[in-house]
Amino acid sequence: MQPLAEPRGRGRPPTDPIDQLRTRMWFHAVKLQSGLPSAYAIEMALDGELVRKRESDVARPRKWDTYEKGSKVPRDKPGTRNVIDQAEARFPGTAVWFRSPIWRMLKRERLDRRAIEAEMRALSPQVRALLFEAELRGTERELRFKAFEGDDEQKLWEMCNFEALVTTLLLVAQSEEIASKELHEQALQLYLDLQAGLMKTVELAPFYPELFSLIDLRFKHWGYLASNQRIEIVIFWQGYQEELAKRARDAAATAHEALVTPDGFLTDGDPS
Fold it and tell me: What does the pLDDT look like over 242-268, one tens digit per residue?
């Protein structure tokens, strides 16, 4: 887990851990997309005019070093020196990592139905096809939501990327807004199912322990003591993955035992 940043000035609060992670993941995406090896190389590519070579060393702003560590968060404000836009123009597809609605949700900012719908309509065409109807109805100007069913869930699971994760959490947030127990359970189970694949992606492999832990604490499962009594339950990703590993070991052991004859030899045939 990345340590909390120390205050850099008197009275200045430490950087929010969520913003730290957000910045580090965005920097990592820029590094991957650019193919550049270091913060220095990225700084030369995007801010080369600010770097001055001296006789014995190089004088440079080093702001990209702070982004890599998450100790400083870019200010995403309109302007010519907006580094998010600057990186996106040179390395398309990187801005989404910083501007994703996942960060607002993890900060517990409430997204109402309209905000959730707007975020869903901003997703890729591939994902929108899983959430919205294919054709407009009558004089309507926007496609309606369609039922999110097993085939849609399967396709989202097969994508197994950051957008699939964001979409899944938007579905959880939507379930909270409309108080849908069925969608809530469906989307949270999909999040659990996505974990193993996401852990292996180059984009998320360095960050999934922090990211999943934050998600687990924000998006809790619902349990019911009675029809009018609901409790919230945290299922941590570590425990879930350990349980999956245990089940796999048990299944492998059972399959092996089924192939072993009473005299200790393996059979050649189908154990069934």
Answer: 999 999 898 888 887 777 766 666 666
145-185 pLDDT, tens per residue?
A: 999 999 999 999 999 999 999 999 999 999 999 999 999 99
Directed axis angle between helix 17-34 and helix 83-90, to 10°? 20
Cβ neighbours of residue 189 closer than 8 Å, sequence gap 6 or more? none
CA distances 97 to 3, 31, 40, 68, 78, Å, are 21, 12, 21, 14, 18
User: Distance (Å, rounded) from C-alpha 120 to C-alpha 184?
Assistant: 16
Q: Kindly report, residue by residue over 108-119, the tens digit of the pLDDT.
A: 998 999 999 999
Q: With contact defined as beta carbons under 8 Å apart, do 234 and 192 qualify?
A: no
- Tokens in use for 117? 């719908």
Place of tokens 């597809």: 93
Do 37 and 64 contact (CB within 8 A), yes or no? no
**Percent of the chain clearing pLDDT 90 (strictly above):** 73
Please report where in the chains the tokens 């123009």 appear, as a residue.
Answer: 89
Residue 30: CA count within 13 A, CB half-sphere: 28
CA distances from 260 to 156, 248, 251, 268, 270 (A): 40, 19, 15, 10, 11
CB 113 within 8 Å of CB 177: yes
CA–CA dist 250, 263 (Å, integer):
22
